[in-house]
Design brief:
Layout: E1 8-11, E2 18-23, E3 28-34, E4 40-46, E5 50-52
Antiparallel strand pairs: 1-2, 1-5, 2-3, 3-4
Pfam families: DUF2158 (PF09926)
InterPro entries: DUF2158
Protein name: DUF2158 domain-containing protein
Length: about 70
């Protein structure tokens, strides 16, 4: 899959959503992300290890649990 600068990606194995900041000719994708403390991180990954990230759901979009009737 070809990624472009600005795409939001995630490792196929999971992890944080990351933003693509560069892609080189050897299919390395350079990404930035922020951890839970707000610290910025950067690294490069082979493109076949990444997938497009699923956007986070807002509270309005999140599924509402359905209560089951008690007997």
């Amino acid at each position: 899959m070809g990624f472009m600068i600005g795409d939001t990606v995630q490792l196929k194995s999971g992890g944080p959503s990351m933003t693509v900041n560069n892609v080189d000719l050897d299919d390395y994708v350079y990404c930035d992300w922020f951890d839970e403390h707000g610290d910025r991180h950067s690294d490069k990954f082979k493109g076949d290890l990444l997938q497009g990230a699923v956007p986070a759901q807002t509270a309005a979009e999140a599924p509402v649990p359905v209560a089951t009737p008690s007997l």
